[in-house]
Amino acid sequence: MRRLRAVLWCFIIGIGVPANQPSSVSGASIAVEGVTFADEVQAGHITMPLQGVGLAKFLRTINVYAGALYLGPGVAPDRVLEDVPKRLELSYFRAIQASDFGKAALKVLADNVPEATIARLKPRIEHMHGLHESVQPGDRYQLTYLPGVGTELSLNGVRKGVVEGADFASAYFSIWLGSDPINETLKEGLLHRRNGR
DSSP character for 28? Predict the structure, then answer.
């Protein structure tokens, strides 16, 4: 029930029309509800293979976004919140206001990160939330962490900013990949290693 409330906070005012087919991507890819994700991505000098894909739904019937998780070469999924290269891509089926990202994130962070840690990270969390823009169906956020660089937020491939620190990345990625994530089914899909990998 707590997870549903968090999803509701983020998406209740964003119910719109489903996205059209996204732009094609070069090379191998995998599709989720018509949304394609590349089989690997390049971040800096690191090529990250696709770990898994998933779908976030509201009330089990409304598609909210499709997601894909990429991990650095040889990184096991159980190390996803450690200081390792990773990227989370989220492609939206619904319109979402910029302010709603922060509201939902804070609720889920409180379920996954100690209060003292959240207090210490507060300036960086607020900075990340200030980078968010409203999205429309078909838009895609990329959240990329590289050790020694920080967590970069991009919208449709356009960099919005970077937040430093492995501690911040561990906390922020726990929104989707922590012990009490915003959507358990999505988490399972993201962490499930694809056949042949």
Answer: S
3-state secondary structure of 155: strand
Kindly report the CATH number assigned to the domain that includes residue 105. Answer: 3.50.70.10
With residue 10 as reference, give the H or E element that holds it.
helix 2-11
Domain that holds residue 87: 2-16+38-191
Residue 146, classed as helix, strand or coil, is: strand
User: CB under 8 Å to 131, separation ≥6 — which residues?
Assistant: 153, 160, 161
Q: What tens digit of pLDDT does each residue of 159-176 get? A: 999 999 999 999 999 999
- Within a domain: residue 64? yes
Spatial contact of 93 and 64, defined as CB atoms under 8 Å apart: yes
Scan for tokens 């200030």, then name that residue: 130
Domain for residue 32, yes or no?
no
- pTM (two decimals): 0.84
Domain count, the chain: 1
